[in-house]
Amino acid sequence: MKRSSRPPVLEPRPSPRRRALSEEERALWDTVAKQVKPLRKHRAAKAHAAPPAGPSSVAQVTRTSPPARPVTAAPAPRVAKPTVPPLAPLGKRERTKLSRGRSEIEARLDLHGMTQMRAYRALTGFLHRAHHDGLTFVLVITGKGRSGGESGVLRRQVPEWLSLPEFRAFVVGFETAHIGHGGEGALYVRIRRARV
């Protein structure tokens, strides 16, 4: 007679009610609990990594540790973005000294007749050199533009360029020049000191 390969179907048993431990069972449990030492983490890891080999180990029992709690990483510290220094207008005293010739204009850049791209490149190079050379005040001549009430492109564009963050490393501030230095067609530019 052939045995069926299927395991017998077991009916689920109703769960028995929990009962309280007797004093004798409680004492036995306390004795056993005092003799048990908790497993150390590194020993448990070694047991999983290299199981003992040999003829005596017929059946190996693998113990599984309870699932670890998900570790929440601490929020990464916020890296402060390098702040762009704000533009500062020239003081009244500085402006007066420049207009009367008491403070020296150390370099001049004339952008007359240049295209916007060429003027932008010339301005960038000029300010970089002035910053590198440790100059304080320079004059940028943009021209007033066409006569007929229409202002020139560079006259409008250069102050916008000087306000860009990329120029703040070189420029502290700027203002329209005195009439003796070109008036509305020129700008006094104060250069930021190079850090040593």
Kindly provide the radius of gyration, computed on alpha-carbon positions and rounded to a whole number of angstroms.
42 Å
The level 1 CATH classification of the domain at 95-191 is Alpha Beta
Largest sheet: 4 strands, mixed
Q: From the coordinates shown, what is the CATH architecture of the domain at 95-191?
A: 2-Layer Sandwich
Number of strands: 4
Strand content: 5-15%
Q: Find the structural class using helix and strand composition.
A: alpha+beta
Shape descriptor reads: rod-shaped
H/E series: HHHEHEHEE
Uncertain segments are none
Strand order of the largest sheet: 1-2-4-3
Q: State the CATH topology of the domain at 95-191.
A: Ribosomal Protein S8, Chain: A, domain 1
Our count of helices gives: 5
Q: Kindly report the average pLDDT value.
A: 74
Beginning-to-end CA distance, first to last residue = 100 Å
Helix content: 25-40%
Question: Which secondary structure elements does this structure contain, and how are they paired or packed?
Answer:
Blueprint lengths: L22 H13 L5 H9 L42 H9 L6 E4 L5 H17 L4 E5 L11 H10 L8 E6 L9 E6 L5
Parallel strand pairs: 1-2
Antiparallel strand pairs: 2-4, 3-4
Structure description:
It is a single chain. With 196 residues, the chain is of the alpha+beta class. It has a domain at 95-191: 2-Layer Sandwich (Ribosomal Protein S8, Chain: A, domain 1). It is 30% helix and 11% strand. The protein contains 5 helices and 4 strands, in the order H-H-H-E-H-E-H-E-E. Helix 4 links the parallel strand 1 and strand 2 (137-141). The longest helix has 17 residues, at 116-132. The N and C termini lie far apart (100 Å). The mean pLDDT is 74.
